[in-house]
Write a structure and sequence with these properties.
about 20% strand, binds zinc ion, Rossmann fold, single chain, 10 helices, 3-stranded antiparallel sheet, 6-stranded parallel sheet, alpha/beta, SIR2/SIRT2 'Small Domain', 2 domains
Amino acid sequence: MSAPLVAFLTGAGISTDSGIPDYRGPSGLWTRDPDAEKLVTYDYYMADPEIRRKSWQLRLQTAALTAEPNAAHEAIAALHRSGAADVWVITQNTDGLHQLAGLPGDRVLELHGSVRWVLCTDCGARTPMRDALVRIEGNPDIPGAAGEPDPPCLSCGGILKAATVMFGETLNPAVLSEAITVARSCQVFFAVGSTLQVQPAASLAGLAARGGARLVIVNDQPTPYDAIADTVIRDRIAAVLPALLSDLTDR
Ligand code: ZN
């Protein structure tokens, strides 16, 4: 018999133990910077070089780029490696921590893109964020190697942005469609660290449940899907998920 298909929908709560703040929280980015919404809105970003310069400076400081996976990311990767389950991760996070924990990239459906990559808005070239940040910082030891505050695409000169989905952009339809297929066909659907309030991600939990999957919600707050879940666990994710998944791995 083939291994059961186990899907994980992960949100901000799985990465808070990696030191990545949940931006919706009271001390989040949204409340600290009056320009915060412009910084993540496509039209403002494309129209205003000052917004772009500010965005790149923020990316230099973003916790997501230096964060390390925690025990919850590791436990999901370990379940995949064990072969006890056919593991798919659908994530609302852009931090790339599932892949850093060792889950193959083709098993991670990043609904909102990734901060670890940069996209050219003109030619579509995809390059590592790290390379762009090196250009922004420049090198104080090399004369003439000053930083570029708003580095253009090296192939075509176009405007670069992080490979994340900004306000005013649509989700990648191929990624979303694959996520729907996974939700419909899985045997177990874990919703981990997601408030299940942002669509279309949240509706995947309902799709999975209607498709006959066992729905397990692990989150520190109540969610709108708790009532239809088979199991609801309100606890610290990095503490509780490894124990939950080791049951599956050992089966
Ligand atoms: Zn380009």
